[in-house]
Design a protein that fits this description.
Layout (H helix, E strand, L loop, with lengths): L3 E9 L6 H21 L4 E8 L3 H9 L4 H18 L6 E4 L3 H16 L3 E11 L4 E3 L18 E10 L5 H10 L4 E2 L1 H13 L5 E2 L1 E2 L7 E2 L2 E6 L1 H6 L1 H4 L7 H8 L2 E7 L3 H15 L6 E5 L2 E3 L2 E2 L11 H8 L1 H11 L6 E3 L1 H31 L2 E2 L8 H22 L3 H22 L1 H6 L4 H22 L4 H11 L16 E2 L13 H14 L27 H5 L3 E12 L2 E10 L6 E5 L14 E5 L5 E3 L2 E3 L2 E2 L1 E2 L6 E2 L14
Parallel strand pairs: 1-2, 1-12, 2-3, 7-13, 12-13, 14-16
Antiparallel strand pairs: 4-5, 4-6, 6-8, 9-11, 10-11, 14-15, 17-18, 19-20, 19-22, 20-21, 22-25, 23-24, 26-27
Helix pairs in contact: 2-3, 3-11, 5-6, 11-12, 12-13, 13-15, 13-17, 14-15, 14-17, 15-17, 17-18
Bound molecules: ligand ME8.
Ligand ME8 binds next to strand 1, helix 1, helix 7 and strand 12.
């Protein structure tokens, strides 16, 4: 029995939900919905929740003149409302102030204690309240600022319980090495391994005595358990903890996945697995750390109102499906993203209103007109155009399914949109309006309409994890019951088209878009789009000006399809690989590529890439590098360029 358990981080209640929280939660929701369609809802669990203890929450409450629990009770409703607005289908919502959570935290503490992994000591160090983490002096910016938040750290000196993290250093390294899927994507795995290999791990201070907002340590009520130990335990406390039925089904006997932002990688890939190893409990199958969103190039921060994108407001104005689609489509999970209202509106207009919305509009109108809304069952369909539609649908299903299994939602959308576009083309090519004019065309018309309806039925099922409302509306308009399983057979059952049909996505023309954007900015308390924003934070590094080039300039680039035929590491160069790339010349080209942090050499052989062949040769690490393999990413390489089907090496790319 295959089971699937997927979680978001639990969010701190000192902030209200913003775009970043929505991103993780939507991604997890999409993956959970897909698995429900594949495995059945009873075999899937999705968890989200809130992190309500710790000094940060206590201080935030104090500033507002509230008790911490008052703050938590108020803000948790904002999170619940946001997830409702975005159609998040979590099976459970855990709060760390719930008794069911506390019981499991205490149980875990005792397990660590029984292993001899908890001891009392004295702690003196620098603490960042925003991170809820101690930093060694060497890591502080300017000797006194937290490296993440750049806010002043506080000196903490107190008695504390420690967890013997150091004992698990080697075990963690070998676990990560032996389980390549544990930390994903590869770049994050390398980051964790780099950290683990760089210096001896220090034991972790896991209790505090100078404030009270948290869970008291067993037998030591003057100690409050460190908020990260408390928080990480949510993933199993929500299942009832070791021994409980839910825990057995969804922790011990399931594919378990934590999706997090890259900011909290170390907590999830070092502290959490070390605690589980100590307690003798299974580790999660995968920790996937996604990238970081900025807003118009700026870090999301409380000091910059324009960056405080409210996902609830957006959903009210353009629909939850559009927000979900944008977040999943704009950047691959794992890469960093830059949000702009213009980008959101562009995708709504082109991909949602034009491609998908139009498809449904056209079909409903056509089906009413030519067969009085009665769609025939599909019989036959052997014309090359019908076959192309069916095989494209099957490919979309297989590729999208594989991508979602591999936690790559944007790749799944690529595959699905191939089908959406082909279905539009199918109507243009089969010309039902011509067939309808001629009585001999009737049999063919039935096949065409049924094939087309079948492609729409499939599209509804394929987009359902991303666009649950649109999927239901497509099914309703086709007169089908709202199925939720991933498509299998290509067999339209026949149906009666619904009498009314809502437009799936409203196109936003320029004036409408401008009005909306002004409203969003005004709500955030930010100046209008045209007015330059007052710099309240140091400006982010600007991108170098990209000068416009002419067609002739572009034509001077000799871009070709290349196939990697050999890949080797370069001694003493962590970031570089020595590649041999076949590009249609008698001998492969040799190049040095800075992709070693993102790709291991073994996986590269056979890959097709876009290759710049007329770049000036350059000697790098003693190797004459003659050309360049194109890849995505700025400072860090995130993905190699590739082609979506096999092409003979040497073929021109333009
Ligand atoms: O860290 N881009 O909670 P948190 C992308 N309570 N994702 C973002 C983002 C951005 N700009 N900003 C936030 C905590 N996120 C702890 C977690 S888990 C046991 C405890 C998302 O409220 C991203 O998932 O600070 C990130 O990891 C999370 O919100 C941090 O939420």
């Amino acid at each position: 029995m295959e089971r699937f358990y997927i979680t978001t981080p639990i969010y701190y209640v000192n902030d209200v939900p913003h775009l970043g929280h929505a991103y993780t939660t939507v991604a997890v929701d999409v993956l959970a919905r897909y698995q429900r369609a594949r495995l059945g809802p009873e075999n899937v669990r999705m968890l989200t929740g809130t992190d309500e203890h710790g000094l940060k929450i206590q201080e935030a409450a104090h500033k507002r003149g509230e008790t911490p629990i008052e703050l938590a009770d108020r803000v948790v409703e904002r999170f619940r409302a946001a997830w409702r607005a975005l159609d998040i289908s979590n099976d459970d919502f855990i709060r760390t102030t719930e008794p069911r959570h506390k019981a499991v935290v205490l149980d875990l503490w005792r397990r660590l204690e029984q292993q001899g992994d908890i001891y009392l000591g004295d702690y003196e160090g620098w603490y960042c309240i925003s991170c809820e983490e101690f930093y060694p002096e060497s890591q502080l910016a300017g000797g006194k600022l937290c490296p993440v938040h750049e806010r002043e750290v506080t000196r903490v000196k107190e008695q504390s319980y420690f967890f013997r993290l150091s004992k698990y250093q080697d075990a963690l390294i070998s676990y990560i090495e032996q389980h390549p899927g544990f930390v994903q994507p590869t770049i994050r795995k390398n980051e964790v391994l780099g950290f683990l290999r760089s210096e001896p791990l220090r034991d972790l201070s896991i209790s505090r005595t100078t404030f009270g907002w948290g869970i008291q340590a067993p037998e030591h009520p003057e100690h409050v358990i460190y908020v990260w130990i408390d928080a990480l335990t949510n993933y199993i406390s929500a299942l009832g903890g070791p021994g409980a039925d839910g825990y057995q089904r969804f922790w011990e006997a399931a594919r378990t996945i934590h999706v997090i932002g890259k900011d909290i990688l170390r907590f999830h890939c070092v502290y959490w697995p070390a605690m589980l190893l100590s307690a003798g409990l299974p580790l999660p199958r995968t920790v996937f750390a996604h990238g970081w969103w900025k807003v118009s190039g700026k870090k999301i921060s409380k000091g910059l109102p324009a960056t405080r994108i409210d996902p609830v407001q957006l959903s009210e104005d353009v629909g939850a499906d559009a927000v979900r689609y944008f977040l999943m489509r704009e950047v691959p999970l794992g890469a960093d993203g830059d949000f702009s209202y213009e980008g959101l509106i562009g995708r709504i207009n082109s991909e949602l209103a034009n491609d998908l919305g139009n498809l449904l509009n056209r079909s409903a109108a056509m089906l009413r007109k030519y067969v009085g809304g009665k769609i025939p069952a599909l019989a036959g369909g052997d014309d090359p155009l019908d076959v192309e539609l069916r095989t494209t649908a099957e490919r979309a299903r297989d590729d999208a399914g594989k991508a979602l299994d591999e936690l790559a939602p944007s790749r799944a959308l690529d595959a699905i949109w191939e089908l959406v576009r082909l279905a539009n083309r199918y109507v243009d090519q089969t010309q039902p309006w011509v067939l309808a004019r001629n009585p001999e065309g009737k049999a063919r018309l039935d096949v065409v309409l049924a094939s087309f309806a079948e492609s729409l039925r499939w599209i509804a099922l394929l987009v359902a994890p991303f666009l649950p409302r649109s999927a239901t509306e497509i099914q309703r308009q086709l007169g089908l019951s709202s199925g939720e399983r991933w498509p299998s057979a290509w067999r339209y059952p026949g149906s009666q088209v619904a009498e009314t049909g809502a437009v799936l996505f409203q196109r936003l023309d320029e004036p409408a878009a401008a009005t909306l954007i002004d409203k969003w900015l005004a709500k955030a308390g930010a100046p209008k789009a045209e007015a330059p924003e007052a710099p309240t934070e140091p400006a982010p590094p600007t991108k170098p000006d990209v000068a416009k080039i002419t067609y002739e300039d572009f034509g001077r680039l000799d871009l070709r399809v290349g196939r990697i035929v050999k890949a080797d590491r370069i001694p003493k160069a962590d970031k570089l690989l020595h590649l041999h790339v076949e590009i249609g010349e008698p001998a492969p080209r040799e190049v040095v590529a800075g992709i070693a942090t993102a790709y291991a050499p073994d996986g590269l052989v056979g890959k097709q890439v876009v290759f710049l062949a007329n770049l000036e040769p350059k000697k790098i690490r003693g190797i004459l590098s003659h050309g360049m393999v194109l890849a995505a990413g700025d400072a860090e390489v995130l993905a190699l360029s590739g082609l979506d089907r096999e092409v003979v090496p040497g073929t021109k790319v333009k």
